[in-house]
Amino acid sequence: MPGYNLVEEPWLTARPVGGGPSVELGIAEALARAHELEGLVVGFSTQLPAVLRQVLLPVVAHATGAPQTLREKGDRLARNNGFTQDELNGLRTYLDEHRAKFDLLDPAAPFAQVAGLRTAKDETKGSAALVATAASGNNVPLFASRTDADPLDLTPAQAAHWLVHTHCWDTAAIKTGVVGDPEVKAGKTTGNPTGPLGQLGVIIPTGRTLYETLLLNLPVTPPSALGVPQWLRSPHGPAWKPRSADGLLDLWTWQARRIRLVPHQDDDGLLKIARVVISAGDRLTVLPVQEPHTAWTFTAAAKKSTSALPERRPRRHTQGKAIWRGLDALLTPTRQGPDGRFETSVLLDEASGLQELDKLDADYPLQVETFGMVYGTQSSVVEDVIHDAIPLPLLALHQDSEAHQLLLDAAEQAEQLAQAVNNLSADLRRAAGTDPIPWDKGQRPGDLLLHTLDPLVRRLLAGVRDAGTDEDVLERGRLAWEEVAHRHARDAANELLLAAPATTFGGRTLDQPGKAGKTQTYRLGTAGANFRYRLGEVLPRYADAVREAAAAREAETGPVLDSDPASGADFDY
Length: 573
Fold this sequence. Notes:
Layout: E1 12-16, E2 23-25, H1 27-32, E3 37-41, H2 47-64, H3 70-77, H4 85-97, E4 125-126, H5 156-169, E5 173-176, E6 188-192, E7 202-206, H6 210-216, E8 242-243, H7 248-252, E9 257-265, E10 271-280, E11 283-284, E12 296-299, E13 311-314, H8 327-330, E14 335-337, E15 340-343, H9 346-356, E16 367-376, E17 381-391, H10 402-432, H11 445-467, H12 471-499, H13 503-506, E18 508-511, E19 519-522, H14 524-538, H15 540-557
Parallel strand pairs: 8-11
Antiparallel strand pairs: 1-2, 1-3, 4-10, 5-6, 7-16, 9-10, 12-13, 12-15, 14-15, 16-17, 18-19
Helix pairs in contact: 2-4, 2-5, 10-11, 10-12, 10-14, 11-12, 12-14, 12-15
C-alpha cells in the first residue's frame, strides 16, 4: 500500500493573494509560499483551527521557535516576504528530518494515529465516524441524505482533515474499546470528554496572508514552555491517560482519541479510506492558563469561602448569537460585567500590544474568526456548529480609546433596541388580551431586529477600523450608526403597531404580579409612547441631532411639526 506524506502531498487548499483559482499543496509548499496565500480553504469551518493547531502552527513554532518577546513577534509579523531564508532553511531541515512522522498511512507510525489499533473482534467503523456532518451511530444530522450503512469513501486529503478535526472536536461519552486499554468494559469505554476545542469558544485572529495569520496565532512563549508536538513524543498505546499538557505544542497537538485509518485502493487504483477505528485517548486534566485561543470568564468559586479564588473558565460562544454581540469579552484584557469578569484571549491581547509598539498600523485589517461546537444528549451528538467572522479594529482593543467605547456602545444599543421592541410587543399583546411571547420559545420581534442590524454593525466595525485615530470620523460614524439603527427600530415597531388589533386602542387593565391590589392598563397609545421614549434614551446622539435640526428649522421658518424621536411624530401610525 503506498504512503501519503502530508509534507508534500497536496492535501491543503489555499487562496492566492489577489484572487485567482485555489491551489493545492503540502505542508512544505504552504509554509514556503505562506506570504503569497491569503488563507486556507477547508470543507467544514471547524477544520480550520484543527489544521492550524494540529499541524501548521506546531511545525512553525518547533522549527523556527515561537517569539520570545512581543517586539520579536512584531518584527517577524512585519515581513512582507514571509519567512526569512534562514527560517525557510530551518523549516525545510525540520520537515526533512521528521518527514516519516507525517506519513498518513505509514504502517508502523501513521501521522496522529496508533498503528495496529484494533478491537478484540477486529471490528472497524465506517469513515463517517470521523465526519461531524455524516450520519454515524447516534450522530445523525437532521435531514441527512445517507445512513450509517452507506459507505463513505474519503480521499487521503479529506481523511487528514477529519482526522485532526476528530482530535480537536470529537463528541463525548461512549467510545469503542480496543485491545490493550485496561478501561474497556463490555467492549467500550465510557465517560470520555469531548475533544479539547469542544470545551472552548475558539478565537482565531487572521491577517492579510497565511504568513500573517500564522504569526498572529503564535503567542509569545519561552523555549522552556514550548514542549514538543505529538509526532515527537513516545508512541502512544491504546490506553487513555489523564494528564496535563506538557507545553504549548503538546496542547495544540493533543491526542484526544486513539485512531487508525484503514486504507484501501478502489477499482481505479486510487487510495481511499472507508473504515476507521476510533477509541478513547488522552484526557486533559487541567486546561492550561496559556491556552491562547479562547477568552475567559471568572466566576465566583464553587466553595463558599472568602479565601476561595474565582474560577477561570473558557468563555464559550452562544448558539445563534453573532460574535459582535459579545464584544465586551473580546475588546479588553479584563472587564467586569454583570455575569462576572471577562478576559480576552492571549492572542488578541498581544495584537493590542503590537499596535502600541507601532508594529501594526491602527488601520491594520485584522479579522477575528470564532468557532464552536454545540453538542446534545450528554455531548454524544453534534447539534450545531458555530462560526462567525468580523473585522476587529486594533484601536478598539485599548480600553481608553474612542473606538473601544464606540463599539461597546453600539453593541449594547443594538441589544437595548431589541429589548425595547420586545417590550413593545409584550405590551401590545397584553393590551389585546394575550400573553407575551416567552423569551425561550418562538421568535420574538427583537431577534428579527438584531438580524436586520447585523450587517450594519459589521459595516460599522470596518468603518471604525478604517478611521484609525480620526475622532471626527469616529463621531460621524457613531451618529450615522444611531440614525440607521433608529430607522430600523422604528420600522420594526411600526410593523407591530400596524398589526395590532382594534381592541388594543381601549386596552386592558391587569393585576400587577406580586403587587396586591395594584393594576396596570395596557393600550396601544401607552405602548407606543413608552417605546418612543425608550428609543430616544438608547440613541441619544441621534435624538439630540433631530432636536437641534428641528430648532434650527423653527428659527428660520417658524414652528414646525415636532420630529423629535422621543415624541414619536416621525412614526407612521
